[in-house]
Amino acid sequence: MPQTDSPLQSYYAARAPEYDAIYLKPERQPDLRAIEAWLPPLFAGARVLELACGTGHWTQFIAPVAAHVVAIDAAPETLRIARSRVPASTVDFRTGDAYAPPTDASGFDAAFAGFWFSHVPRARWREFVQGLHAVLHPGARVVLLDNLWVAGSSTPIAEQDDAGDTFQMRQLADGTRHRVLKNFPTEGELHALVSDSGHAATFTTWRHYWAFDYRVGAPGAARR
Asked: Is a pLDDT exceeding 80 seen at residue 101?
């Protein structure tokens, strides 16, 4: 979930009790089962930094196979749910900012961000990637997982600003409405973003989701 002190953080804090309802959409179940099987082997034995972990929905699949996970999120409301879902013995949950990843732990050799990148303003894409790479070992694996735009399943786009960022209007169970930044980057944009700082990039799609998997640094950089 978003990691800033903007209205986005307030929205996700308020949404915490109903956050996981998004994973119950019937049309998305085949994709979710496929991703749940696809994702964990990528992090087997790794020291993983998870950004914007939210309620720990994806942490619960990564933690059993990883050597260790540090999972950060800006909202205490979602972290409380995450801590109740995943044993503390396998994950170090922290309040934190995805634009300023923790540097006190030993270098990570993998990173994961699920449904966070779509909330990064286009003007901050490079800032986010550079900040993440700074706390990763050369050759570390990065996996970004997010939504594809699918008519009839995705929330409609309400507006687009001059920077190219797109926004949705979302309503919570309490009736409040929120303007939420939600971008849908293309495969080409993602490859271009890491063209000078990553390699071995692959773009995988399901009907409703995409994943971008790459290694930090130049080819031949040390890796686990």
From this structure: yes
